[in-house]
């Protein structure tokens, strides 16, 4: 019986057409003679989600093909440690230390090249992704502490270099990723196809010191708002403090959730007025904040007019818009009553503005 590589090409295509992604990736690695044929075949694995998690000593690549999820883990260890094992058995390797390389250089020169090499192959089999998630995970989850921030910096530099070299624009419905600055957002976001992106979900990471709120820095996003990816998306969620851009930069979104250090009266008034703008698509605007003058809400919205269904600890206002067929509800909730388990504990309250149709 002939070996697999010795079979006629048409026979191989028939044999391989029903193989799953895990088997094709394994076959590419153990049978170099078949790589060209595999790369030419038009597989449809139904890959709908890819999640990338960067940690201090490893990178996880999780792939979802609908009914099946599988994980590839790339680990870096010094030479005296045990060789690392990839969870799915696809790749086993050991990175050796060298007197000519620092640990972090060896880590990025070999370890990242393996990861991006595999990612390049996997993306060949991707048509459209429902979700692309890229996150860097701090060593200490409580305070967001990164013992080696250069690890994160170089990972995003390598990611940008990879995307540029491949000259690709990923067709992604929802982009969810962690960044430490506007610059890191700009390293990834321009390579997402602007005609396919619906939801932009950004986590702006920073070291947290709850006892010293003044140590937390807000991040500018002015250059992000200039991108077509921002302008064409429908939903926006930014976790982490930002300097809010002009309100008009939000009006094309349907849903917005942002976090700011201080609520300013003029900006709050502009957000409310945006809901009355005929060209605005805003349906919901949620603000998580740390500070606000206690009289700001009164000056902007007047006295609250809670309804029986409203929480006793909340403040609510109602304004009819668009020929009285739509009602704008504005709600103000202390954090402990907002039912946001994942919200950063630095915030004190949540303010949301939401439109809904008046029942006939």
TrEMBL record:
What PROSITE patterns does the record point to? FBOX
Annotated SMART domains: FBOX
Record domain F-box: where: 1-50
- Coiled-coil zones: none
Pfam families for the chain: F-box, FTH
Concerning InterPro entries, the annotation shows: DUF38/FTH_CAE_spp, F-box_dom
Reading the lineage from the top rank, the first entry is Eukaryota
Name of this protein: Protein CBG24803
Annotated source species: Caenorhabditis briggsae
């Amino acid at each position: 019986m002939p070996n697999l590589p010795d079979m006629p090409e048409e026979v191989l295509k028939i044999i391989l057409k029903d193989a799953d992604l895990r088997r094709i990736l394994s076959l590419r690695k153990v049978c170099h003679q078949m790589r060209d044929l595999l790369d030419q075949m038009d597989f449809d694995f139904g890959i709908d989600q890819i999640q990338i998690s960067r940690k201090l000593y490893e990178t996880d690549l999780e792939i979802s093909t609908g009914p099946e999820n599988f994980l590839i883990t790339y680990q870096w260890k010094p030479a005296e440690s045990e060789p690392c094992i990839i969870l799915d058995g696809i790749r086993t390797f050991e990175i050796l230390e060298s007197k000519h390389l620092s640990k972090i250089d060896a880590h990025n020169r070999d370890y990242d090249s393996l990861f991006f090499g595999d990612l390049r192959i996997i993306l060949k089999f991707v048509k459209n992704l429902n979700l692309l998630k890229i996150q860097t995970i701090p060593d200490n989850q409580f305070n967001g502490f990164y013992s080696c921030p250069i690890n994160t910096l170089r990972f995003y530099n390598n990611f940008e270099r990879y995307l540029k070299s491949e000259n690709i624009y990923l067709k992604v419905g929802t982009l969810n990723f962690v960044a430490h600055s506007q610059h890191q957002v700009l390293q990834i976001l321009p390579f997402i196809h602007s005609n396919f992106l619906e939801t932009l979900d950004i986590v702006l990471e920073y070291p947290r010191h709850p006892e010293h709120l003044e140590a937390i820095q807000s991040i500018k996003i002015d250059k992000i708002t200039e991108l077509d990816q921002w302008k064409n998306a429908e939903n926006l969620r930014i976790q982490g403090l930002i300097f809010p851009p002009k309100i008009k930069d939000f009006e094309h979104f349907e849903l917005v959730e942002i976090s700011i250090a201080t609520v300013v009266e003029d900006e709050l008034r502009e957000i409310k007025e945006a809901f009355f703008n005929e060209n605005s698509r805003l349906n919901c605007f949620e603000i998580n904040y740390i500070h606000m003058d206690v009289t700001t809400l009164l000056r902007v919205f007047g006295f609250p007019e809670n309804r029986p269904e409203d929480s006793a600890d909340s403040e609510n206002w109602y304004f009819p818009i668009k020929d009285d067929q739509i009602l704008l509800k504005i709600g103000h909730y202390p954090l402990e009553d907002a039912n946001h388990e994942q919200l950063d504990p630095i915030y004190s309250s949540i303010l949301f503005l939401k439109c809904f149709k008046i029942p006939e």
